[in-house]
Design goal:
9-stranded mixed beta sheet; Restriction Endonuclease; 3 domains; Immunoglobulin-like
Amino acid sequence: MALFNEIHSDQLQKFQSAIEPWSSAYSDASFGFVGIKNGSVIELLQGQIILPNGNSSLINKFIETKSFVGGLYRLNEFNQTYSEVLKALTEGELNTPYGKVKLLTDTSNSISAYFTSFPSGFENHQVRDTRLSLTGAQGQHLPSIEKAVIELRSAEAPYESISEVASEVSILEYRKDMAIIHVLAANVVAVDLSKEINNKAVDIGIFLAKGLNHDDCSLGYKIIVQGKVFERNRIMGNEFNWTNSELHQYGTKQINVPEGALIQCFASYAGEFQFQGWIVDPSTFPNVFRVLHNSIDSNLENLNKYLFDDSYVKSNSRDFETGVANLFFMLGFSVDPIKGKRNENGPDLLATTSKGNVVVVECTIGQIENDGKIGKLVHRSQLLKEQLKNSAHGHLQVIPVIITALSKTSVTGIESAIQAGVLVLTKEDLLVAIDKTMVNKGSDSFFNDAWDILNANQQDKLFK
């Protein structure tokens, strides 16, 4: 039996208490995992319990070799609830349609639990994640996976890697440095961001998971005109006009706004914030740089694909670099994409503020430490500083920044990068940055924030 001490048991209880007010929305949960066979038990390298805010579209999957198993199944089809699955995994073994599984642990046989009610930077994200992580073996206590990889590549239906199988069974962020199970609880209320302001009015829309009480949700908002707050208000659940669909409940409420306004919305359930987003008139963005880009890339559809569509990004890494350049442009930077075969030894792009301060950008769709990227970026930035100094521009400041398509929880080496003087931006930061393009804050303002944060070693406070 796994050891789960009082401290970590308390973390589990806090997670379950946090989502209890809307837990009835999670009736169609799924569990995906990858693991190595050890006798009659599958020892999990990684797993993900997915708590969706409605009916799941996931399909059961089973991938097996002599030494490896990857699986995905919907819990209700096996007469299990997510609470029962969590209890079994923290106490020892769980019965699944594909055999008994347990989280891989080291010789101490202990499992740790981590739950943060307010994850770092959550206030800037569109969706507030509710996540619990169970961790087991790490580092040298992890088994060799070479045999499993060879078997996967020679299988009748081959896979290149365990990471590829993990993606197939809906594990979003496969980690190689520890055995871990994530529990991801989706938000149960959201703002309809497809709504637009027309003729000084908007029908604000709100999505609510089926089965939940209208009266327990609310939507706060602030109206911004010419960069200043014009009004703050809140719409309670019983003030919306509600309709039902097969997927969710939907409420609408019309409000009037001044010409050229933006509306920032905050959706909550049971008094707990869950989602934020902007409703705009696309023809009247206060930020001219976003207006210009939006005239070519309507609703930022291409940009979102370049930056956040995981399957597309994996096959089109150069487009990820293009998306980053587009984003810097909309934030008010002058951008020089360093493209072409002859420029391969340079950074991916240079971005300058209106005062001439410089951001040296390296992009990656994987780990920031791969191929010595951090060292190369530091070296290139130092050469650039010397060039500026020799050209009578030594007063200008230079920040090296590495930007990855991965989520922060998947990235290793962030602290090492900061110590080397490199700012690290992840998928979450890019999502926040897109929201910041609504209003032209000024490139120097962003640069100054980044400079202060990097020098104060406060990586998580960039877009606060």
